[in-house]
Amino acid sequence: MTTxxxxxxxxxxxxxxxxxxxxxxxxxxxxxxYIQSVYDGEVDAFWKECDSLAKxxxxxxxxxxxxxxxxxxxxxxxxxxxxxxxxxxxVALFPGVEEWFDRMKQFGKQHGVIVEHYIISxxxxxxxxxxxxxxxxxxxxxxxxxxxxxxxxVAIWPAQVINYTNKTQFLxxxxxxxxxxxxxxxxxxxxxxxxxxxxxNIVYIGDSATDIPCMKLVNVNGGHSIGVYDNNTLDxxxxxxxxxxxxIKYFAPADYTEGSKLDDLVKAIIIRTASNETLENIHYECxxxxxxxxxxxxxxxxxxxxxxxxxxxDASKTFETTHIIxxxxxxVEHWKExxxxxxxxxxxxxxxxxxxxxxxxxxxxxxxxxNQLPHPSEKSQKVESFFTES
Length: 390
Fold this sequence. Notes:
7-stranded mixed beta sheet, elongated, alpha/beta, 17 helices
């Protein structure tokens, strides 16, 4: 399988990550047609049976609802990927969601920021992919619970189960650009300047306690976590609690229309991202200069030691002493041109050094310093001609 990895862009990337149910849609996606068509009782009773099943078997709650969906479909509908996408097409969305994703991308483009949208949901991937926004290509990736299907398209086993804690892995995938769920490269070390989407450039939008691990992770790493509440009921109890517990930075109604509070908030984050990344790039440039200056300072402080070694080599009158000094010279990684010039003089005029030029250690040392010259010199060419002597 070919894995998909994204690398650092020449512009800052802002990744906006969304839960789905009650974040982009007013209700659980399964309760917007599917449960009513396969289950004889009320929607609440369906979820209570799922909870009971999970407790009885010490089972993940998401696995319980996925099992229950298949079990209740038996004899009523053929439980296929196509059928799930059809139910997904019926899922209602909050005001403005249809236009939101492209509008944010365009606004980001105007400010030099690449805006990407990701779904991280415990809901069903197949249903989300049936929505109009997913079909329009709004999402860079949809990370959600999903089924494995047989060759007839019928669901036979869970392929992916996403709960509130393992949601966080997908933030790290987005951060590093390691997007495929089976790519273990997500565990590799990335230098800060190579991170594609630093956490400070991640926005997580969710509605409830199941989003808290992601919200907290984004929050403590300098990103932006936003709690949304129903635009019709205007019940702020959950988001106020999350804010008081430092799980989120902001909250707003789930109104995605232009000019809404959420619209203004995310646009402000985009503008801030552009400024932040300009400053971060300046910081990295300063850091590079500082490292170079420190290396140069350290190099200059050691110049006296290097000159002492050069003088000792010039004064060497025996093969044994020459080999000892060469071993010390081999420990020096970088030489200045004037120092190389002196060392080449020694190779030409000092008898023990010239005689030993084809010994492994002496030969390796002189080949190395000649390679450090930006351009061959008359002396370096003369010394190289000695290398061919028997």
